[in-house]
């Protein structure tokens, strides 16, 4: 059986994990062909640990390697669009890690170029889309039984990061190196799911607080409010300074409610399915304080099942498996690369709203965003 041969650009924490799992054969349709990193220590690690795998310093050399069918981009965020376009130009399939980039203008250019190469598969590592609870939520919403969504709220404050985390230095935790803080680093998966499940809003009002109880120049405490064309609303709250924090998603619709709560060892989901849509019930109801008939389903995943899925196998490899099948057999992508711009658009809008202290309508002004981002980078340079 033919296998899809992957070349990984960037073998830091994430990239090295991908390399090891591919080499272990966890994707039966995929194989590790080569790796690349500009860091000498990472290249030495690869030569020692990844036997018989070519190791490159220049990603252009990896892209031109004829043994590579697909390029996986796991570099600092600013470089994702640039390297992905280069790989597509050389007729390689592409998977980028999250986020798709730092600003939507660059990602939009990537999407436009990818559209000129329809024969190539372009995906993004949105591994949370493989989580069975979120997939069940998506099925309920897409079935129509949920009815029109009224509200989506997510509190995710269990990203605790102490000062020591930010003091490591390097490209992380800066606007110049990473493009932002908790929105750019920790929350891209949740921002993707927020719009994947709830849809894209028409406007955003964001409050991104910089350096709450931390000596940093990026945001570590965020609250934003969204409004939708149908009158629905949303609230998203996240931080890296709360402990132990919370991870709770609630989606309410005309036909019921979804609640998903994740803790360290377990995940729970409750689906309330109304027997009659609330709008229809309200039209004929004459009781002062009625109870609406509903069916409730509880789903819980335990510690050992989660440990197997998240740690031993990992959701990431499920994205690789899907990507390999998409290339080899035409399977539908779980996370198309072109959809990477959606969650990024949300984070860009939150930043811009906070910087300008005003509501931002979508689509946002991309040039204005770049101007304001550069102001943040200049401020960092003045502080250093």
Keywords for this entry:
384 residues, alpha/beta, Rossmann fold, Dihydrodipicolinate Reductase, domain 2, 9-stranded mixed beta sheet, 6-stranded parallel beta sheet, globular
In helices, the fraction of residues equals 25-40%
CATH topology of the largest domain: Dihydrodipicolinate Reductase, domain 2
> Class of the largest domain, according to the CATH hierarchy?
Alpha Beta
CATH superfamily of the largest domain: Dihydrodipicolinate Reductase, domain 2
| Reported CATH architecture of the largest domain | 2-Layer Sandwich
Low-confidence stretches: none
Mean pLDDT: 94
Decide which structural class fits the backbone: alpha/beta
Radius of gyration: 22 Å
Order of helices and strands: EHEHEHEHEHEHEHHEEEEEEHEHHHEH
The count of DSSP E runs of length 2 or more, i.e. the number of strands, is: 15
- Biggest sheet details: 9 strands, mixed
Shape: globular
Percent of residues in beta strands?
15-25%
What oligomeric state do these chains adopt? single chain
Strand order in space, largest sheet: 14-13-12-11-7-10-9-8-15
């Amino acid at each position: 059986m033919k296998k899809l041969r992957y070349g990984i650009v960037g073998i830091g924490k994430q990239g090295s994990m991908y390399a090891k799992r591919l080499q272990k054969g966890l994707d039966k349709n995929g194989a590790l062909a080569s790796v690349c990193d500009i860091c000498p220590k990472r290249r030495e690690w690869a030569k020692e640990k990844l036997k018989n795998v070519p190791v490159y310093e220049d990603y252009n050399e990896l892209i031109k390697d004829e043994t590579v069918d697909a390029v996986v981009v796991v570099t600092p965020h600013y470089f994702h669009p640039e390297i992905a376009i280069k790989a597509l130009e050389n007729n390689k399939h592409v998977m980028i890690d999250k986020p798709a980039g730092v600003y939507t203008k660059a990602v939009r250019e990537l999407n436009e170029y990818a559209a000129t190469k329809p024969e190539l598969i372009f995906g993004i590592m949105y591994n949370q889309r493989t989580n069975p609870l979120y997939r069940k939520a998506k099925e309920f919403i897409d079935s129509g039984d949920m009815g029109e969504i009224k509200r989506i709220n997510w509190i995710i404050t269990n990203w605790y990061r102490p000062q020591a985390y930010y003091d490591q230095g390097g490209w992380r935790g800066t606007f110049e190196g990473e493009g932002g803080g908790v929105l750019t680093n920790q929350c891209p998966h949740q921002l993707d799911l927020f719009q994947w499940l709830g849809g894209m809003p028409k406007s955003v009002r964001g409050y991104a607080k910089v350096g709450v109880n931390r000596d940093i120049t990026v945001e570590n405490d965020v609250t934003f409010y969204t409004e939708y064309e149908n009158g629905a609303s949303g609230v998203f709250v996240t931080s890296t300074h709360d402990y132990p924090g919370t991870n709770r998603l609630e989606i309410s619709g005309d036909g019921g409610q979804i609640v998903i709560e994740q803790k360290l060892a377990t995940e729970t989901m409750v689906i309330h399915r109304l027997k009659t849509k609330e709008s229809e019930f309200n039209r004929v109801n004459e009781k002062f304080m009625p109870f609406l008939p509903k069916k409730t389903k509880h789903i819980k995943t335990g510690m050992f099942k989660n440990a197997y899925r998240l740690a031993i196998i990992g959701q990431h490899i499920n994205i690789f498996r899907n990507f390999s099948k998409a290339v080899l057999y035409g399977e539908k992508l779980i996370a198309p690369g072109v959809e990477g711009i959606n969650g990024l658009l949300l984070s860009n809008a939150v930043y811009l709203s906070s910087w300008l202290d005003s509501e931002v309508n979508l689509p946002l002004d991309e040039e204005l965003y770049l101007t304001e981002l550069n102001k943040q980078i200049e401020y960092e340079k003045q502080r250093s």
